[in-house]
């Protein structure tokens, strides 16, 4: 345990320059080391919060459109989807089911052409499994009627095609008679029934909904291609999917939403880890200021060290004095940085909005980042990790200067005093 006098002297050395006005440069270096560690910690907390918020917001918008779980019949079409839905509902985690079909193609409006994925749905069933079907989105999709050849476009897709409700678009897709050497397109005219918006650019700009009956006619089939399931907790989708695969009667292929977007989520998690490592290096560089400050402090306090040694202080006590001084500097920086980082992370969306308004710029391009506002989600586990790493680096930075202080020769240090 550290003796009380060692703590008292370490604290006094930390405060002496500012109190007496002497050794102002050492005092300045102490402030620089505190500020450096604090800014590094704050930056690390804010960046990790942004990465968490980005993953949360984009993931939530993905899940609102994508299926929690998709079930396909290995034999082809799912002709008796109602029976499969009842079979899946025996799992207590499954809350609802809806059939679907997907039609890839190109949408044309005059001289504008955009690729799109058309999903055939039964509106009354889709509302049970899709979180985005609320308010205006639900009203637009409820307008889809079998045989009416209506289409609901993503908001960005409608803007790109320059169409609104009541206008017409042409769907072009390969015909059943197409071959590798002779691709014959088939076309179909749709009336725009409305638009939907989920806040995810990929879906808003490349997806559309049509009625299931119209999709089956386009694909020349008489049944949906699969079943979309909604479960109570989307995070449990892999476990529920595996349970369904084992319990469903028949040969079924089961896929959860994490498999469909595994590359994206893995990339975001990898970026978060890399940002943590890079910004930790910034904290490490700031911790080197503690080394420089302690080295100068040891040089300045050589006479004090010699006097303490002649009074009987052991080398380990001398080392502890300067470790206390350096560690307190680091802890002050960590405390200040944690407070600043947490406050910024909590208020980051408002801060970013204010900066955008003041400078007249948009910080996030929705064509690249899928979202337009800066998200933030503060996780205390991240804060704990950042604080732990910063304190450890601050402690390590005190070891060499403190050890060097024990090498002071009392007779030589007092020779010119």
From TrEMBL:
Membrane topology field: Multi-pass membrane protein
GO annotation terms (biological process): lipoprotein localization to outer membrane; lipoprotein transport
Keywords: Cell membrane, Lipoprotein, Membrane, Transmembrane, Transmembrane helix, Transport
GO cellular component: plasma membrane protein complex
Domain ABC3 transporter permease C-terminal: 276-410
Location(s) in or outside the cell: Cell membrane
Residue span(s) of domain MacB-like periplasmic core: 30-246
Keyword Lipoprotein on entry: yes
Pfam families hit by this protein: FtsX, MacB_PCD
Alphabetical list of InterPro entries matching this protein: ABC3_permease_C, Lipoprotein-release_system, LolCE_TM, MacB_PCD
Domain of life (superkingdom): Bacteria
Transmembrane regions listed in the UniProt entry: 25-51, 274-298, 319-346, 378-400
Family the entry assigns: Belongs to the ABC-4 integral membrane protein family. LolC/E subfamily.
Protein name: Lipoprotein-releasing ABC transporter permease subunit
């Amino acid at each position: 345990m550290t003796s009380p006098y060692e703590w008292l002297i370490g604290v006094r050395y930390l405060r002496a320059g500012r109190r007496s006005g002497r050794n102002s440069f050492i005092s300045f270096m102490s402030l620089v080391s505190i500020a450096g560690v604090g800014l590094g910690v704050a930056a690390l907390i804010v960046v990790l919060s942004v990465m968490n918020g980005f993953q949360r917001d984009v993931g939530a918008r993905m899940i609102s459109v994508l299926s929690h779980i998709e079930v396909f019949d290995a034999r082809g079409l799912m002709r008796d989807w109602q029976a499969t839905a009842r079979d899946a509902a025996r799992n207590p985690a499954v809350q609802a089911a809806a059939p679907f079909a997907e039609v890839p193609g190109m949408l044309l409006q005059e001289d504008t052409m955009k690729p799109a994925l058309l999903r055939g749905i039964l509106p009354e069933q889709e509302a049970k499994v899709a979180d985005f079907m609320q308010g205006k989105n639900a009203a637009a999709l409820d307008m889809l009627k079998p045989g009416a050849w209506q289409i609901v476009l993503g908001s960005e897709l409608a803007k790109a095609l320059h169409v609104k409700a009541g206008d017409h678009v042409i769907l072009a897709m390969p015909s059943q008679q197409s071959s590798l050497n002779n691709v014959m397109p088939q076309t179909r005219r749709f009336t725009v029934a409305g638009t939907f918006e989920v806040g995810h650019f990929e879906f808003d700009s490349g997806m559309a909904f049509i009625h299931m009956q119209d999709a089956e006619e386009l694909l020349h089939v008489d049944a949906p291609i699969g079943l979309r399931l909604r479960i109570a907790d989307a995070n449990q989708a892999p476990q529920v999917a595996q349970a369904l695969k084992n319990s469903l009667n028949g040969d079924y292929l089961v896929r959860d939403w994490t498999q469909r977007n595994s590359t994206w989520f893995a990339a975001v998690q990898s970026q978060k880890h890399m940002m943590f490592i890079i910004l930790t290096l910034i904290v490490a560089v700031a911790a080197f200021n503690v080394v420089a400050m302690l080295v100068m402090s040891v040089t300045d306090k050589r006479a004090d060290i010699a006097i303490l040694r002649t009074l009987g202080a052991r080398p380990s006590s001398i080392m502890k004095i300067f470790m206390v001084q350096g560690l307190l500097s680091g802890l002050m920086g960590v405390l200040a940085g944690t407070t600043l980082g947490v406050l910024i992370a909590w208020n980051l969306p408002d801060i970013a909005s204010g900066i955008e308004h003041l400078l007249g710029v948009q910080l996030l391009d929705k064509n690249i980042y899928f979202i337009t506002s800066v998200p933030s989600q503060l996780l205390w586990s991240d804060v704990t990790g950042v604080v732990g790493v910063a304190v450890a680096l601050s402690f390590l930075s005190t070891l060499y200067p403190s050890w060097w202080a024990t090498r002071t020769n009392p007779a030589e240090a007092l020779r010119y005093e």
